[in-house]
Amino acid sequence: MNYNVGDIFTDDEFYTDRANFCNKNGYYIEEIEPLEDGTRQFQIKAPQEPTQEVIVKSRITEIQMAVQNLLDSKAQEKNYDNGFAIASYANSTDTIFHDEANRFIAWRDQCWRECYNILAQFKNGEIEMPTVEYVLERLPNLEWEE
Q: What are the residue ranges spanned by the domains of the chain?
Protein backbone atom coordinates (compact mmCIF):
# COMPACT_ATOMS: atom_id res chain seq x y z
CA MET A 1 0.00 0.00 0.00
CA ASN A 2 1.03 3.58 -0.58
CA TYR A 3 0.76 6.11 2.23
CA ASN A 4 1.38 9.85 2.32
CA VAL A 5 2.27 12.50 4.85
CA GLY A 6 -0.98 13.89 6.23
CA ASP A 7 -2.95 10.65 5.85
CA ILE A 8 -5.37 10.14 8.73
CA PHE A 9 -6.39 6.66 9.80
CA THR A 10 -7.93 4.81 12.71
CA ASP A 11 -6.40 2.05 14.81
CA ASP A 12 -6.95 -0.79 12.35
CA GLU A 13 -5.16 -3.82 10.96
CA PHE A 14 -3.01 -1.61 8.70
CA TYR A 15 -1.41 0.29 11.60
CA THR A 16 1.69 -1.94 11.49
CA ASP A 17 2.03 -1.43 7.72
CA ARG A 18 1.80 2.32 8.19
CA ALA A 19 4.31 2.23 11.05
CA ASN A 20 6.77 0.27 8.88
CA PHE A 21 6.26 2.78 6.05
CA CYS A 22 7.01 5.65 8.44
CA ASN A 23 10.12 3.97 9.85
CA LYS A 24 11.50 3.35 6.35
CA ASN A 25 10.85 6.92 5.19
CA GLY A 26 11.74 8.95 8.26
CA TYR A 27 8.15 9.86 9.12
CA TYR A 28 6.28 9.34 12.36
CA ILE A 29 2.73 8.65 13.49
CA GLU A 30 0.98 11.05 15.84
CA GLU A 31 -2.29 10.41 17.63
CA ILE A 32 -4.84 13.16 16.92
CA GLU A 33 -8.37 13.96 18.13
CA PRO A 34 -10.55 10.85 18.35
CA LEU A 35 -13.69 10.52 16.30
CA GLU A 36 -17.03 11.41 17.94
CA ASP A 37 -17.59 7.75 18.82
CA GLY A 38 -14.22 7.66 20.63
CA THR A 39 -12.33 5.79 17.90
CA ARG A 40 -8.65 6.70 18.05
CA GLN A 41 -7.21 8.51 15.02
CA PHE A 42 -3.64 8.82 13.85
CA GLN A 43 -1.86 10.92 11.26
CA ILE A 44 1.34 10.37 9.31
CA LYS A 45 3.68 13.30 9.92
CA ALA A 46 6.98 14.44 8.49
CA PRO A 47 9.71 15.26 10.98
CA GLN A 48 9.95 18.89 11.98
CA GLU A 49 13.12 20.87 11.42
CA PRO A 50 14.93 21.07 14.76
CA THR A 51 14.75 24.39 16.54
CA GLN A 52 17.91 26.40 17.17
CA GLU A 53 17.64 25.43 20.85
CA VAL A 54 17.66 21.73 19.95
CA ILE A 55 20.60 22.23 17.57
CA VAL A 56 22.61 24.04 20.25
CA LYS A 57 21.84 21.46 22.95
CA SER A 58 22.79 18.67 20.57
CA ARG A 59 26.11 20.35 19.68
CA ILE A 60 26.96 20.96 23.33
CA THR A 61 26.27 17.31 24.09
CA GLU A 62 28.47 16.25 21.15
CA ILE A 63 31.28 18.47 22.43
CA GLN A 64 30.99 17.17 25.98
CA MET A 65 31.01 13.57 24.77
CA ALA A 66 34.07 14.23 22.60
CA VAL A 67 35.96 15.77 25.51
CA GLN A 68 35.04 12.85 27.76
CA ASN A 69 36.15 10.41 25.05
CA LEU A 70 39.48 12.24 24.80
CA LEU A 71 39.94 11.98 28.56
CA ASP A 72 39.02 8.30 28.59
CA SER A 73 41.39 7.58 25.69
CA LYS A 74 44.26 9.30 27.47
CA ALA A 75 43.62 7.24 30.63
CA GLN A 76 43.51 4.07 28.54
CA GLU A 77 47.01 4.83 27.27
CA LYS A 78 48.10 3.90 30.80
CA ASN A 79 45.80 0.87 30.97
CA TYR A 80 43.06 2.44 33.08
CA ASP A 81 39.47 1.73 32.04
CA ASN A 82 38.59 5.43 31.69
CA GLY A 83 39.12 8.88 33.16
CA PHE A 84 37.07 8.10 36.24
CA ALA A 85 39.19 5.04 36.99
CA ILE A 86 42.53 6.85 36.80
CA ALA A 87 41.21 9.73 38.91
CA SER A 88 40.27 7.25 41.63
CA TYR A 89 43.99 6.67 42.22
CA ALA A 90 44.65 10.26 43.34
CA ASN A 91 45.21 9.14 46.95
CA SER A 92 46.90 5.86 46.12
CA THR A 93 49.78 4.74 48.30
CA ASP A 94 51.54 3.53 45.15
CA THR A 95 53.60 6.49 43.92
CA ILE A 96 53.25 5.61 40.22
CA PHE A 97 49.45 5.37 40.39
CA HIS A 98 49.32 8.48 42.58
CA ASP A 99 51.46 10.54 40.21
CA GLU A 100 49.64 9.38 37.06
CA ALA A 101 46.28 10.16 38.63
CA ASN A 102 47.28 13.63 39.76
CA ARG A 103 48.84 14.55 36.39
CA PHE A 104 45.68 13.31 34.72
CA ILE A 105 43.38 15.21 37.09
CA ALA A 106 45.26 18.49 36.54
CA TRP A 107 45.08 17.98 32.77
CA ARG A 108 41.40 16.92 32.93
CA ASP A 109 40.53 20.08 34.85
CA GLN A 110 42.35 22.23 32.27
CA CYS A 111 40.48 20.49 29.45
CA TRP A 112 37.06 21.00 30.99
CA ARG A 113 37.85 24.61 31.94
CA GLU A 114 38.86 25.38 28.34
CA CYS A 115 35.81 23.56 26.99
CA TYR A 116 33.44 25.52 29.21
CA ASN A 117 35.26 28.80 28.47
CA ILE A 118 34.66 28.19 24.76
CA LEU A 119 31.00 27.36 25.37
CA ALA A 120 30.63 30.53 27.47
CA GLN A 121 32.14 32.58 24.62
CA PHE A 122 29.53 31.07 22.31
CA LYS A 123 26.65 31.72 24.72
CA ASN A 124 27.85 35.33 25.12
CA GLY A 125 27.88 35.82 21.34
CA GLU A 126 31.67 36.24 21.16
CA ILE A 127 32.14 33.31 18.76
CA GLU A 128 30.01 31.26 16.38
CA MET A 129 28.69 27.89 17.53
CA PRO A 130 31.87 25.82 17.96
CA THR A 131 32.38 22.48 16.31
CA VAL A 132 33.74 19.45 18.12
CA GLU A 133 36.98 19.85 16.16
CA TYR A 134 37.27 23.52 17.15
CA VAL A 135 37.05 22.65 20.84
CA LEU A 136 39.35 19.62 20.70
CA GLU A 137 42.04 21.60 18.85
CA ARG A 138 42.13 24.12 21.69
CA LEU A 139 42.48 21.67 24.55
CA PRO A 140 45.86 21.21 26.23
CA ASN A 141 47.82 18.05 25.53
CA LEU A 142 49.07 15.54 28.07
CA GLU A 143 52.19 13.57 27.24
CA TRP A 144 52.88 10.67 29.55
CA GLU A 145 56.38 10.21 30.86
CA GLU A 146 57.84 6.83 30.02
A: 8-45, 52-137
d(CA 104, CA 75): 8
The radius of gyration of the chain's CA atoms, rounded to the nearest angstrom, is: 25
Give dist(CA 13, CA 16) in Å, integer.
Answer: 7
Per-residue pLDDT 10s for the chain (146 aa) are: 678 888 888 876 577 777 788 878 888 888 888 889 888 888 888 887 778 888 899 999 999 999 999 999 999 999 999 999 999 999 999 999 999 999 999 999 999 999 999 999 999 999 999 999 999 999 999 999 87
The pTM for the full model equals 0.70
Can you say whether residue 79 is alpha, beta or left, with left for phi > 0 and alpha for psi between -120 and 50 degrees?
left
